[in-house]
Amino acid sequence: MKKPRLALAVLLAACLCLAACRTEVYQNLSEDTANELLSALLQRGITAEKVSMGKDGFAVTVEEEDQLRSLEILRDLGLPRPAYEGLGVVFRKEGMMSSPLEERARLSYALSQELAASCSRLDGVVSANVHVVLQEKDVLTGAITPASAAVVIRHTPDAPVDHYIPQIRSVVVQAVPDVTAERVSVQTFPVMGDVTRPVAVPASQNTVQRWLPWLLLFPAGLLAGGGAVWFFLRKRKS
Predict the structure, then answer these.
(1) I want to staple 157 with a disulfide (CB 3.0 to 4.6 A). Which of 125, 190, 226, 237 is the partner?
(2) CB 28: neighbour CB atoms within 10 A?
(3) Where are the alpha helices (DSSP H) in the chain?
(4) What is the pLDDT of residues 77-136, one digit of tens each?
(5) Is the dihedral of CA 37, 39, 44, 45 positive or negative?
């Protein structure tokens, strides 16, 4: 009776050891976000896994020794991406009335969020920020402050984002009331370093990484199975 229990204990200990070797880099993620993080890490040679956490969404785990590099890679890639707020969220009714100044501030913020979300979806863009200033007229002097917008984009070093600048400026002009192309500034900055570039992982390394956990569990499983068979035969004999 002691041997099957010992085998079971060995199997559980092996499972715990394998679980202890991994650590979470992010949790409470949507499945789409978790898939994006998982793909980015796997492409750069990190053995990452997506783990379901039930109602708490998903987590992405890596080996403990890969945690620091994983965080650096995701940081330089701007992942997980910020949750941009659309017009429907910003202008959701929560009170009786809003002042004109509050309405202008909310409109400016909402336009900035919408445009930043659009720019962030361009190929090669790591992160995007847009700052919108709406046209304003001084009620006392009649002086007009013209509308303007500034777009700041971080991108991977090999992405041709500079070729998109005329299209980006055109989108901003169409989205922001009373703004002209001359009042739209678009600045692009390549991400420093090489962590944003995928690496070619040898097929042999991928195979070892894929089968290593099962190879470690095999002896424990064999021992547990042998113990169960021994216990069954002994019980049948008795």
Answers:
(1) 190
(2) 12
(3) 2-20, 31-43, 67-76, 87-90, 100-120, 165-175, 203-237
(4) 888 988 776 655 555 656 556 677 778 888 899 999 999 999 999 988 999 999 999 999
(5) positive
